[in-house]
Amino acid sequence: MKDFLEDIINLKKKEIGAANAKRPIADIIDSKRLSKSIRPFKEAISGGNSLNLIAEIKKKAPSAKKIFFRKLDVAGIANAYKSEGAKAISVLTDKKFFGGSLLHINEVKRAVDLPVLRKDFIIDEYQVYESRYFGADAILLIARILSVDQIKSFMHLAKKIGMDAIVEVHDEADLEKALLASPEIIGVNNRDLDTFQVSVENTLRIIPKIPEGIVKVSESGITKREDVDALRKMGVNAVLIGGAFLSAGDIGGKIKEIMSYESQG
Question: Tens-of-pLDDT digits for all 265 residues of the chain?
Fold first, then answer.
């Protein structure tokens, strides 16, 4: 774990402490918000015969070294994604590195009827409950920063309170750890969180090693139609794309360009 991940983990520990002091976990667990209906995330991203799109909302990214938007129009972006066929929306809630907010989850859910994935660096059960409290339908669990026991615990807790979970891996060591937790969804991150180097070939290498029956997602670095076509042919169920859309002047046009791959027939 290099400096970036260490900084993230230290920051999250401080954020969790502050959040728990402001809104204790007991209050969240007892909240009526945890009984609100959930939009089925796994079903949305694994249905049909085509590659499903999970479109991401974030203000900035440390890997891009730039701000996508000075003011983030969450509802406007969500509507653009929905109109171009996205099946789910990923919301990056980390504030320091991605300009996110937990409040963006509810903004998306008010704007469109798609399921929402909370994408963040989840290291504590507080964040799992917090995700549901703020309206998330699914969470991302990063194998690189969690133990097998943590992955199992957070995944099972998510399911208990109605959410799905993507277990994210980058390499074979991550995958081995993830499989020990028996996940229903595995996401392959094409970006190495230690170096920020990115290659779609990473998914193409890892996918054949994921057992049948697990929903497969490819994340990051997907920027052209050829990437999508190659991933579809490998049996990937969904792609998670954010930066390629958000850095384009015309989000809708960029989605058409990347996702309009050749007929599967």
Answer: 457 888 899 999 999 999 999 999 999 999 999 999 999 999 999 987 789 999 999 988 876 666 677 788 999 999 999 999 999 999 999 998 888 999 999 999 999 999 999 999 999 999 999 999 999 999 999 999 999 999 999 999 999 999 999 999 999 999 999 999 999 999 999 988 777 788 888 999 999 999 999 999 999 989 999 999 999 999 999 999 998 999 888 899 999 999 974 333 3
Which of 103, 91, 117 lies closest to 246 in space, CA to CA? 91
pTM higher than the cut 0.90: yes
Closest to 14 (Cα-Cα) out of 170, 123, 152: 123
| CB-based contact 136:163 (threshold 8 Å) | yes
Say if residues 29 and 129 touch (Cβ distance below 8 Å). Answer: yes
DSSP H stretches of helix in 23-147: 25-29, 41-46, 74-83, 103-111, 125-133
For 256, phi then psi, to 5°, come to -60, -40
Q: How far apart are CA 138 and CA 105, in angstroms?
A: 11
Q: Which two tokens stand for residue 99?
A: 């300009």
Q: What is the dihedral of CA 97, 99, 100, 101, to 10 degrees?
A: 110
Exposure string over 129-139, b if 16+ CB within 10 A, otherwise e: bbbbbbbbbbb
Report the sign of the C-alpha dihedral through residues 23, 166, 101, 144, in that order: positive
CA distance 220 to 243: 8
Whether 77 and 45 have beta carbons less than 8 Å apart is answered as: no
